[in-house]
Structures are given as structure tokens and as C-alpha cells.
Design brief:
247 residues, mainly beta, single chain, Lipocalin
């Protein structure tokens, strides 16, 4: 049974995943190309969301509108990501298919990146809320596989594609009769390939994420998330969104 202690532990893990300072071996040009390809495609361009509502099956359908922002340092332009994701459950199964479209712009007058992708999420284990607990805590473990691509709208028409897989480990607790708080962490790995005038290459990168969502009985949720494509000196993306769920 999931308890409030385990939910608190999940929050600590989430902060550790996103805020930890990685010390990796010297990075190659392929590492940087992988990072650049992942962060402009949906696998890394948008913040994650936590969606544990304590029900035995995933939502029948859901629509997410997400915003994220990041920059390397104070000398870099702020990069803005805006995306829409539509997700649909496959029959009465524990598996859902999602389609995402996104646009990455920056605070300078530079051209942006258009991107799109598909993902498949399957719940491996789910703990339903305990009826003898006031918090009615629940938990889950799911796996998410993503594939997508992006194209630069400016001169040169650079392109990127990526594949990524991640675990979704999370849970939720009841805050009131009409709301729940959900938390999730997303450890994973991704492959990205970038083709441009200045850069050609690809490779793999660890990807870490964490999210918190406030879910309401009417199927609306407010989402906060962070995602980091692991690169020494690289940025952590922070974001928020709103989603609608059909249960």
C-alpha cells in the first residue's frame, strides 16, 4: 500500500533527480548533437506531467497544453517551448497512444523549430487507493516510449530526430473530496541525431524528469514539471501546463 511517507520520499527523489549536478566524462561532439536534437524534439522539448488519479485504468482520453523554458546561462537567449498533446487509451487496456505538436522559439529574433512526435505509454503496475485511509493514496509504475522529429524554420533548414524511453514512477494522495495531488519522476534515456550546416552527429543522453499535478474532479489538472537532458553545464527546463481528462 502506498503511504504518505512514500509520497514524501517520491518528492525528495524528484528534487534530487532534477537538481543534481552531474559529473560525467568529457563530452564529445556527438553528445552535444544528441542534446540539441533531443531538446528541440517532443521527447525533450516539453515538461512532463503527473497523471495518477487513483483510478484502475488510465484516462480514456486527455488533452495537454504545455509550456517550458530554458537557457544555458545568463548570456543565452531564453528558449520557449509551447506544445499540445492529445492522448487516447487503446480500448480497455493499460496502454495509451499520444500525438504531440510543438514549437520552440527564443527571446531573440531568431527563427524557431517546429516539431512533432508520437508516444506509447503502458502502465506496468498500479496500486488503487486504500479505502481505510483518509489520504486514499495510490501509486503506479509505467513505461513510456517516444519518437519524434523537428525542423528549423530559418536559413539552412536544420533537422533533428530522436527516440527516448523512460519509466514513470509516481503516486497521488487525496487533498479533498474533489482534488488529488500527483507526483512522478521520470528516469530515462534518449537518442538524438542532428543535421545542420554546422553540426552533424548523434548519440545517447540520460534524461531525468519530475512533475507535480493538481487534479480536480471535473477532469481538469494544473501541471508543473522539470526535465533535464544530462549534459555537463546544460540547462534544466522548467514548465507548466493545463490538461483536460476524460475518465
Amino acid at each position: 500500500m502506498v503511504t504518505i511517507r512514500s509520497v514524501r520520499s517520491l518528492a525528495v527523489v524528484a528534487l534530487a533527480c532534477v537538481g543534481a549536478s552531474e559529473r560525467l566524462a568529457a563530452q564529445s561532439s556527438n553528445d552535444l548533437a544528441a542534446f540539441n536534437a533531443l531538446i528541440v524534439s517532443p521527447a525533450g522539448a516539453l515538461p512532463p506531467s503527473a497523471n495518477d488519479d487513483g483510478r484502475p485504468l488510465p484516462d480514456r482520453a486527455a488533452l495537454f497544453v504545455s509550456y517550458g523554458r530554458w537557457r544555458y546561462d545568463i548570456n543565452d537567449a531564453i528558449h520557449h517551448n509551447l506544445g499540445v498533446t492529445a492522448r487516447d487509451r487503446l480500448g480497455a487496456s493499460n496502454t495509451s497512444l499520444a500525438v504531440t505538436g510543438a514549437y520552440l522559439s527564443s527571446s531573440c529574433d531568431c527563427a524557431g523549430w517546429w516539431s512533432g512526435g508520437v508516444s506509447l505509454e503502458s502502465v506496468l503496475w498500479r496500486s488503487e487507493p486504500s479505502s481505510d485511509s483518509r489520504l486514499r493514496a495510490s501509486g503506479h509504475v509505467a513505461i513510456d516510449a517516444m519518437a519524434g522529429g523537428a525542423r528549423f524554420s530559418g536559413v539552412g533548414h536544420a533537422s533533428a530526430y530522436s527516440f527516448a524511453g523512460a519509466l514513470d514512477i509516481g503516486g497521488s494522495v487525496r487533498l479533498s473530496s474533489s482534488s488529488r495531488l500527483a507526483l512522478s519522476v521520470f528516469p530515462g534515456f534518449g537518442y538524438g541525431h542532428l543535421t545542420s550546416v554546422d553540426e552533424l552527429g548523434g548519440g545517447t543522453r540520460p534524461v531525468l524528469g519530475a512533475a507535480a499535478s493538481l487534479l480536480f474532479a471535473r477532469g481538469v489538472s494544473i501541471d508543473l514539471g522539470a526535465r533535464r537532458i544530462v549534459l555537463v553545464g546544460g540547462p534544466t527546463q522548467l514548465g507548466a501546463g493545463v490538461s483536460w481528462h476524460r475518465r
